Amino acid sequence: MSKIVAITACPTGIAHTFMAQEALLQAAKEMGVDIRVETQGAGGSEDTLTADEISAADAVIIAADKKVELDRFVGKKVLQTSVTAAIKDARGLIEESTTAPVYGQTSAAGDATGEYLSSIQEQKDAHKSGQPAFYRHLMNGVSNMLPLVISGGIFIALSVAIDLNQKESLSQAFNNIGSGSAFALFVPILAAFIAQSIGDRPAFAAGLVGGWIGTQGAMYGEPNASAGYIGGIIAGFLAGYLTLGLRKLIRVPRTLEGVKTVLIMPVLTVGITGLLMIYVLGHPIAALMHAISNGLTHMGASGSIGLGLLLGLMMAFDMGGPFNKVAYFFAVGLLPTGTPEAQTIMAAVMGAGMVPPLAMALSTFISKHKYTPDERDAGKAAIILGACFITEGAIPFATRDPLRVIPSIMVGAAITGALTMVFKVTSPAPHGGIFVFWLIGHWYLYVIAILIGAIIAGVMASVLKKRVV
């Protein structure tokens, strides 16, 4: 019996990670393959692979949308792919892993050039698997900054709520935790982990500094503006690829490798990234973010409805994928402005993201004959996931019947996004679902908007789907 070890990891570490694990375990059982799967989820690593298990394995599968350390798999056949690929075709991945390239085979073991070529090969492998390197690096940053966004947003929302009761001291403390600390750090952390995903540990410091400079408008002549999360993304990629390039260009005797690592590379990468952010990139990016913010502030009612429709469509299209993340972080990036418009956009995004799982749960109840027993069980779990704003709860249904499910949930989510704009619902919190409804402005209208979208999407899916034979 062949032996496989695997790691699954998605940016949020909530749904995709464990769905991919389950798909691999099920496929291996059907194929008679011995498999062990380590999950790197929101709570850290679980079922961690031991050195003996890795040594005995015939191949390794890395199903991840963020960076996974591969040092322990040197000399093993390693297949790198996305969590979505594992969910959709776990059997195919297990078969393909036996012919995967051996990881870590370079011309000069351990030297800088070898590390560089290995990194480039990883990017090529990721691209071949249908997961662009750009997305993988971006998601590595997102997964590490997401806890700051969520916790910071909740504390900002609590600050606003407590201040209404005139408990100003505690309100200020919560605001310092949320806005002054967590939200101040999330852009630098985003940039740092994007950079680390590209250029490994030597790129971390440059990404962190570049991201921080992007939030400090006074450094580049924009005292009342910030380059925001777009500046953080650009700084991260700049620092990462700069580190890769310098690592290739700078050659020193092996006796000076330590000096190169701890002195030469950090000084050059931090300095060049910082200067480019201050004198070249910071000002135009901050101007762009300022223009976007102003445009949204002065947007008319019809434009707001259109934006709500667009954000709803994006949230439901790939349920945790690139389009979903762009919509979510667009809203999160505006939230620190504190304007009603920004909070309405955040409400539209969260409401639209809750619709897909709720809609599919409703469909499994009203059209039981069109779903398998496993799908009906997944529908019960989808109620909880949807209520918690975990859009990925609809993925099992979309994976099995994408042509009927995805259009249905997109329509429902778009309607919820538009209605949220019409009702002028506001959300100072970037996450939490029903657990932050007490902080929502016009929460009762928000419930109505979500229910209307979920009912329309659920009925549409029920009509389109065929009876299970």
Description:
Helices cover 67% and strands 6% of the residues. The chain has helices at residues 16-31, 51-56, 83-88, 90-97, 112-128, 133-163, 168-199, 204-215, 228-249, 257-297, 301-317, 322-334, 340-366, 373-387, 395-400, 402-423, 443-464, and strands at 3-9, 34-41, 44-46, 59-64, 78-81. Helix 13 (340-366) runs antiparallel to helix 14. The longest helix has 41 residues, at 257-297. Mean pLDDT is 82; it is low at 106-130.
Q: What multimeric state do the chains show?
A: single chain
Kindly estimate the percentage of residues that lie in beta strands according to DSSP. 5-15%
Q: Report low-confidence residues grouped into runs of 5 or more.
A: 106-130
Count every helix, treating DSSP H or I runs of 4 or more residues as helices.
17
Could you give the distance between the termini? 34 Å
Helix share bin: 55-70%
Mean pLDDT: 82
Structural class: mainly alpha
Question: Key terms for this structure?
Answer:
469 residues, mainly alpha, 5-stranded mixed β-sheet, 17 helices
Quick gist of this model?
The protein is mainly alpha-helical. It has 17 helices and 5 strands. It has helices at 16-31, 51-56, 83-88, 90-97, 112-128, 133-163, 168-199, 204-215, 228-249, 257-297, 301-317, 322-334, 340-366, 373-387, 395-400, 402-423, 443-464, and strands spanning 3-9, 34-41, 44-46, 59-64, 78-81.
What's the helix and strand layout?
Elements: E1 3-9, H1 16-31, E2 34-41, E3 44-46, H2 51-56, E4 59-64, E5 78-81, H3 83-88, H4 90-97, H5 112-128, H6 133-163, H7 168-199, H8 204-215, H9 228-249, H10 257-297, H11 301-317, H12 322-334, H13 340-366, H14 373-387, H15 395-400, H16 402-423, H17 443-464
Parallel strand pairs: 1-2, 1-4, 4-5
Antiparallel strand pairs: 2-3
Helix pairs in contact: 6-7, 7-8, 7-9, 8-9, 8-10, 9-10, 11-12, 11-13, 11-16, 12-13, 13-14, 13-16, 13-17, 16-17
